[in-house]
């Protein structure tokens, strides 16, 4: 995407960094950085997912981590010009326990931001390519165990007294990807999921659902989607892919299994987990426990005055799967973010009369426009230039969250100008638009709150044309026997009310399964601490409690969209493997 450069200046900078770090000369290291510098580290130095900002914070991080990290072997692998004053260099390095990969961005010869990532643990590398397993032991052997026999024994092992080292609660995309990473690292892992089959979490959703992100952004680790795969994946096709993936990656996956409770034994450093598998109680004692229940926790349900008087049906969008039973009915959808739009379209296609109640403004971006302006490194053009998904992920991660708002604001200024007529028509239809409290658009809303946005794949035109009615900017006062009454005295008749009102934080699942005290000690997941609406400070610089150590030992959170689950599953798996092998160093900047 950018021009390659000589790299001599970048190589000199990297050599200077390596020499200063080898001497543990923090002052010499700081001289290589701008005052407003950022060091983003995934496990390599901090044994955390952590960004430090400014020279004082950088100095503290180095003084506390260099002794056990002992970084060395810094080698530049590529350099490119990003702008007349900016150079991006790629490099490799080693630590006391493994190999790393990083990206640094230089402005006028000094570093503005650097990303360091641990990629593998020495002696515990993934077997792939030239180190792949042979798959057979040649020669005659009366005691031979075939692959099928070994696999059957593995699948039954946790049923016959063995305990997994890691238990993953949640068998959707996040749990499956993490399970695949852990298997490649030889970590005994069990995934438990309420639904019967892998992929059911997608299959069970409303019939018209299609992924809003393009295929180049959504690959799973190890097995990318084939080249004939559609740009936007239908939900049932995604479900089938996940089921295939779980089988081919040889995961141990218990469907039809509910986690009832979990208790941590401080003395033994293990969990006691009570499960119900197809209604039968099972007790396991894993060392590590991962909550991979999506990006969210339990559904948020509104307690509406007069609900007991309403003669119709009230349900949450998480309970909605098919609009065919609502044909000809008057349906009110409360909520105007992604699920509210998608449910409304599905209902309209089924023949329902739909009104969307919009309680706060929504950021809307047309899918075509997002593809045109925002997915340059995740595209067919990027692949043609040699930028595969792993390279694109690192390129995206090289920009710390604190530096994203200016570029995102510039992107959405461009989008608003490009689609000005579209936005005018939406507003004329009564829809309330916004682009975030600082005009930074959809992506920053996704990171800060995971809510308040919609990638338009058809609902907006139905709103513009009046097929989906909008009631915006007026508070619900109460429900009547026949509908919804508002604070302005108006009323909408309804046979059905669907609450597309979002979900609580993932730590609320911990409250249900472990206990309230542990959940409160951990605190909410997701968000950056931006100080904007629904994302209170202080500033974290990374997603709260995700993919890293939390206030409860041996407990982790994993989730997010396909891209985040794919990328961060690598670093969470490395943290868990390092603990299994006794290789993990002190956590810097932890809970």
UniProtKB/TrEMBL annotation:
Task: State the Pfam families in the record.
Answer: Pyr_redox_3, SnoaL_2
The record's section on SUPFAM superfamilies has: FAD/NAD(P)-binding domain (SSF51905), NTF2-like (SSF54427)
Could you list this entry's UniProt keywords, alphabetically sorted.
Oxidoreductase
All copies of domain SnoaL-like, residue ranges: 19-100
Write the protein's name: NAD(P)/FAD-dependent oxidoreductase
């Amino acid at each position: 995407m950018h021009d390659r450069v000589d790299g001599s200046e970048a190589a000199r900078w990297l050599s200077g960094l390596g020499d200063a770090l080898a001497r543990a000369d923090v002052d010499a290291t700081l001289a290589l950085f701008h005052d407003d510098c950022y060091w983003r580290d995934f496990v390599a130095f901090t044994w955390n997912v952590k960004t430090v900002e400014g020279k004082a914070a950088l100095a503290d991080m180095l003084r506390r981590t260099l002794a056990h990290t002992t970084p060395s072997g810094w080698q530049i692998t590529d350099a490119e010009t990003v702008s007349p004053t900016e150079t991006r260099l790629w490099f490799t390095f080693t630590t006391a326990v493994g190999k790393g990969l990083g990206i640094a961005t230089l402005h006028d010869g000094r570093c503005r931001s650097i990303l360091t990532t641990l990629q593998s643990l020495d002696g515990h590398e993934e077997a792939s390519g030239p180190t792949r397993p042979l798959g057979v032991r040649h020669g005659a052997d009366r005691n031979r165990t075939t692959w099928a026999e070994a696999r059957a024994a593995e699948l039954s092992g946790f049923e016959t007294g063995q305990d997994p080292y890691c238990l993953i609660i949640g068998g959707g995309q996040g749990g499956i990807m993490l399970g695949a990473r852990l298997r490649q690292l030889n970590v005994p892992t069990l995934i438990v999921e309420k639904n019967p089959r892998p992929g059911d979490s997608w299959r069970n959703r409303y019939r018209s659902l299609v992924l809003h992100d393009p295929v180049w952004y959504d690959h799973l680790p190890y097995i990318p989607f084939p080249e004939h795969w559609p740009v936007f994946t239908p939900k049932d096709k995604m479900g089938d892919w996940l089921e295939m993936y779980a089988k081919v990656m040889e995961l141990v996956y218990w469907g039809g299994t509910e986690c009832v409770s979990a208790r941590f034994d401080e003395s033994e450093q293990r969990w006691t987990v009570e499960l119900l598998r197809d209604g039968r109680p099972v007790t396991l004692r894993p060392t590590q426990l991962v909550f991979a229940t999506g990006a969210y926790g339990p559904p948020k349900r509104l307690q509406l005055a007069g609900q007991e008087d309403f003669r119709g049906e009230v349900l949450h969008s998480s309970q909605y799967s098919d609009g065919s039973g609502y044909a000809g009915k008057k349906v009110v959808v409360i909520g105007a973010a992604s699920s509210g739009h998608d449910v409304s379209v599905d209902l309209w296609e089924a023949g329902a009369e739909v009104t969307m109640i919009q309680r706060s403004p929504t950021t809307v971006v047309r899918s075509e426009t997002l593809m045109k302006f925002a997915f340059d490194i995740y595209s067919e053009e990027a692949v043609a230039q040699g930028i595969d998904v792993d390279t694109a992920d690192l390129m995206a991660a090289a920009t710390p969250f604190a530096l994203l708002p200016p570029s995102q604001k510039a992107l959405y200024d461009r989008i608003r100008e490009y689609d000005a007529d579209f936005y005018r028509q939406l507003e004329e239809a009564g829809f309330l638009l916004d682009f975030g409290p600082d005009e930074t658009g959809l992506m920053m809303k996704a990171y800060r709150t995971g809510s308040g946005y919609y990638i338009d794949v058809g609902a907006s035109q139905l709103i513009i044309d009046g097929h989906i009615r909008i009631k915006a900017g007026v508070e619900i006062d109460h429900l009547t026997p026949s509908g919804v009454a508002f604070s302005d005295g108006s009323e909408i008749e309804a046979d059905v009310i669907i609450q597309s009102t979002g979900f609580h934080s993932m730590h609320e699942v911990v409250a249900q399964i472990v206990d309230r005290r542990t959940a409160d000690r951990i605190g909410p997941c997701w968000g950056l601490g931006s100080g904007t609406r629904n994302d209170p400070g202080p500033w974290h610089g990374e997603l709260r409690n995700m993919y890293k150590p939390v206030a409860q030992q041996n407990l982790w959170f994993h989730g997010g969209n396909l891209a985040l689950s794919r990328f961060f599953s690598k670093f969470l798996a490395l943290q868990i493997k390092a603990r299994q092998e006794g290789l993990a160093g002190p956590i810097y900047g932890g809970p």
